[in-house]
Specification:
Low-confidence stretches: none
Largest sheet: 8 strands, parallel, barrel
Radius of gyration: 20 Å
Number of strands: 16
Structural class: alpha/beta
Strand order of the largest sheet: 4-5-6-10-11-12-13-14
Mean pLDDT: 95
Bound molecules: zinc ion
C-alpha cells in the first residue's frame, strides 16, 4: 500500500492510494453495496459507467446470508460480484450493535442473534478478520463497538478501551491471515476506527493511541448516529489533527453533500453513505439546485432530464415526466435511474472536489456548491 498526498489546500487533502486492486484517487465516495450489490438493480458494469472507484460491502450481511465461506470458495467477493476495483468491507460491528436486538458484549466479542433466522452467532475481532479475509476485500475495517451518542461517559470510556484491545487483536489476526498460502487477498489492508461518542477528550486520547499502531488507514466512527451536524464538525475539528495525516482518513457513514464538503475541509478523504441509493429508491434526487422529489405533480409534464447538463445514464436519455411515471407505475426502472443519477452526482462531486483542491480553490468551490444546493426550489 502506498498513500501519497498530491496536493493540499488548507486542511483539505488530495491523495492517491495504491492498492492490490488499483489506485484510488481521494477524496473518494465509496458506493454502498450492502450484500455485494447496490440496491436498485445497479450492476458492477453500471458502477464503472458512473465513475465508482470503491465499492463497500457489509461483513455482517454477507456472513449471515450466503456466507463468507461460500464466497471464499468462489474465489472471493471480487470474483463473486464481478468487480475488479477496490472493495472496502466494514467489520460487522455496527450491524451487530444496530440490527440484533439480543446481544451480549464480552471481552472476547459479542454474542447475538441473526436478524434473519434468529440463530446464535458469536463475533469478535478474530471472527471479523476471518470473515473479511474470506471475502478478500481490499480494505478491512477493525472490529469495534460504536457506543450510542447518548451513552454515559463511563460507558463510552470502558467501551473505547475495549475497542483498543480489540484493535490489537485485529492487527495480529490480520497479519496471521495474510501470511497463509490460501488467503484470497494476502495484501489486505486494515483501517482502525476512532470512537468516543461526543466526548472530545476521550476521542483525542483514543486517536493518539491508535495512531501509534501503524495501521494502513484511520476512520472516525460513531458519527451520524444522532448527534447534530455542528457536533459532528466540532468532533472532526478536534480529532482529525491527532490522526496521521500521511494515512487515509475515513469518516464512516457520512453523509449529505454538505457534510462531505465540510468534512473534506477538515482533512477527511474517504466517505460512504446510503443516502444517494436510499433516496434514489424513494424518488428523491440530488441536483446542484437542491434535492427534488419526483412525485411532486409539477414534474408530470416536465420534459427536462433530472438535471440539465448531467452526464449520467438517466439524464442522457430520460425525462423527469417519464421517470415520475415509472415511480407511479411502480416500475423498477424508476428506482434504478434515480439511484444511477444520485451515485453519479456524488461521484462527480468528488471529482470536482479533487479538482478544486488541486487548483487551490477549495474554499470558493465549497461556498458556491453549498449556495447552489441551498438556493434550489426544494432544499436538501
Ligand atoms: Zn443525471
Amino acid at each position: 500500500m502506498e498513500y501519497k498526498i498530491l496536493y493540499k489546500d488548507g486542511r483539505a487533502k488530495r491523495a492517491e492510494m495504491k492498492t492490490a486492486h488499483g489506485t484510488i484517487q481521494t477524496p473518494v465516495f465509496m458506493n454502498v453495496g450492502t450484500v455485494g450489490a447496490i440496491k436498485g438493480a445497479v450492476s458492477t458494469d453500471d458502477l464503472k459507467e458512473i465513475g465508482t472507484q470503491v465499492e463497500l460491502s457489509n461483513t455482517y450481511h454477507l456472513h449471515v446470508r450466503t456466507g463468507d465461506k461460500l464466497i471464499k470458495q468462489f474465489g472471493g467477493l471480487h470474483k463473486f460480484m464481478h468487480w475488479d476495483r477496490p472493495i472496502l468491507t466494514d467489520s460487522g460491528g455496527f450491524q451487530v450493535f444496530s440490527l440484533s436486538g439480543l446481544r451480549k458484549i464480552k471481552e472476547e466479542g459479542v454474542y447475538f442473534n441473526s436478524h434473519i433466522d434468529g440463530r446464535k452467532i458469536f463475533m469478535g475481532p478474530e471472527e471479523s478478520m476471518q470473515i473479511q479475509s474470506n471475502l478478500g476485500s481490499t480494505i478491512a475495517m477493525a472490529f469495534d463497538e460504536c457506543p450510542s451518542s447518548v451513552a454515559s461517559r463511563e460507558y463510552v470510556q470502558a467501551s473505547v478501551d475495549r475497542t483498543t484491545r480489540w484493535l490489537v487483536r485485529c492487527k495480529e489476526e490480520m497479519k496471521r491471515l495474510n501470511s497463509l498460502p490460501d488467503t484470497v487477498n494476502r495484501e489486505q489492508l486494515l483501517f482502525g476506527i476512532n470512537q468516543g461518542a461526543v466526548y472530545d477528550d476521550i476521542r483525542i486520547e483514543h486517536a493518539k493511541t491508535i495512531s501509534e499502531m501503524d495501521l494502513d488507514g484511520y476512520a472516525v466512527g460513531g458519527l451520524a448516529v444522532g448527534e447534530t451536524h455542528d457536533e459532528m464538525y466540532r468532533i472532526l475539528d478536534s480529532v482529525v489533527p491527532y490522526l496521521p495525516e500521511d494515512k487515509p482518513t475515513y469518516l464512516m457513514g457520512v453523509g449529505t453533500p454538505a457534510n462531505i464538503l465540510e468534512a473534506v475541509d477538515r482533512g477527511v478523504d474517504f466517505f460512504d453513505c446510503v443516502y444517494p441509493t436510499r433516496n434514489g429508491r424513494h424518488s428523491h434526487v440530488y441536483t446542484n439546485h437542491g434535492k427534488m422529489n419526483l412525485l411532486n405533480s409539477k414534474y408530470e409534464l416536465d420534459p427536462r432530464p433530472l438535471e440539465e447538463g448531467c452526464g449520467c445514464p438517466a439524464c442522457r436519455s430520460y425525462s423527469r415526466a417519464y421517470i415520475r411515471h415509472l415511480f407511479k407505475a411502480k416500475e423498477m426502472l424508476g428506482m434504478r435511474l434515480c439511484v444511477l443519477h444520485n451515485l453519479y452526482f456524488y461521484n462527480k462531486m468528488m471529482e470536482e472536489i479533487r479538482d478544486a483542491i488541486e487548483h487551490h480553490r477549495y474554499a470558493e468551490y465549497k461556498a458556491a456548491k453549498l449556495a447552489g444546493m441551498m438556493a434550489g426550489e426544494e432544499q436538501n
